[in-house]
């Protein structure tokens, strides 16, 4: 890039493109120099400047530059009146993606100003990304700035005196190893990484979209050590892996930007039960539970984390889609099966609480959902059977009057027949719909 200074104002040679112009706004402090740069942005305006304008506004701490850039954007596009960044992104995402050929360098150098580690996410853009790069937003934290709990301390039921029976926990059982992760702790960390039941697992909690997903992090013999990238896609956290710094979509469980894209990697996901501590320990008296001794100083009291966010239906980060069949943060049971992952289904949690035995079919799979008094859901394959009753605890009855026992891994009939449990998770409606706009909904 050719840059010469004349009377304190930058003059750019012909090699300079829009990316260099926008990045130069962070190099100059002099008002004359900054105005010179913005004059050149205005004079050379192209459609692919829109996203760079918005992202520059996101992190530059100069109100004069911000106001001038918004004025330039408004005068050169059909941008309506806006009040915040969400409005800008909403406008942008209604259009086809227009990116400079050098946009990945812009994104890399821009966010490197916040955290050096961010640079590699976008420099590793040489593989075709599977999501729109202009939908990747900075979430306001550094890499692992919301610190994952790696091999956290677990304690027994008797030791967990800090928990009340009505506290919300996320329960898992893998190969007989039952564990509880209180929402009041996990909301501050959004991820745990551990070996459970002899398997390498990561439990990923996106507080913004209300999604808790349990992944086996090993794929074809390689264990992917994942963390929190600091970036979001459709208001859902993007993960990263330490080996390649590829970005991973949390709901899909697969890399979407970086060198691992196109390698056929997709993490297997398992079931997570959202329930109360009292209900979980009654079912699993030998469960272990996350200790308050996390190594971090946080206010882990019930309902403290994200209190204001959870108390309204407003979003912190918007998505390109909206659907008013449910409120944004109404919880849904999210289903997709390996038989045909292109088919998706959301079932409103309130509907299931009223219909404690619900039968359906998805991707050619007949399934049944049982919902206990705590509101916890468990999903099983049902074959050609139909079920008529659930006692709210562990006994269900089929249409022939045969009794079945419910566990975290399967349904077992009194004559020994076994039906397997199917994977699922809970989500806020807007988060699931943003990931899968074509999802079916039962409410």
Task: Describe this entry's structure for a reader.
It is elongated, with a radius of gyration of 25 Å. A hairpin with a 2-residue loop joins strand 22 (357-362) and strand 23. The protein has 443 residues and is an alpha+beta fold. Helices cover 22% and strands 31% of the residues. The strands form 8 sheets. A 5-stranded antiparallel β-sheet has the order 3-13-14-15-16, with no helix packed on it. A 5-stranded mixed β-sheet has the order 4-8-9-10-17, with no helix packed on it. A 5-stranded mixed β-sheet has the order 5-19-7-6-18.
Low-confidence segments, given as residue ranges, are 1-15
For the record, give the distance between the C-alpha atoms at the N and C termini, rounded to a whole number.
58 Å
Rg estimate, integer Å? 25 Å
Average pLDDT over all residues: 94
Largest sheet: 5 strands, antiparallel
Summarize this, please?
With 443 residues, this protein is an alpha+beta fold.
Pick out its properties.
single chain; 443 residues; alpha+beta; five-stranded antiparallel beta sheet; five-stranded mixed beta sheet; 12 helices; 31 strands; 31% strand; disordered N terminus
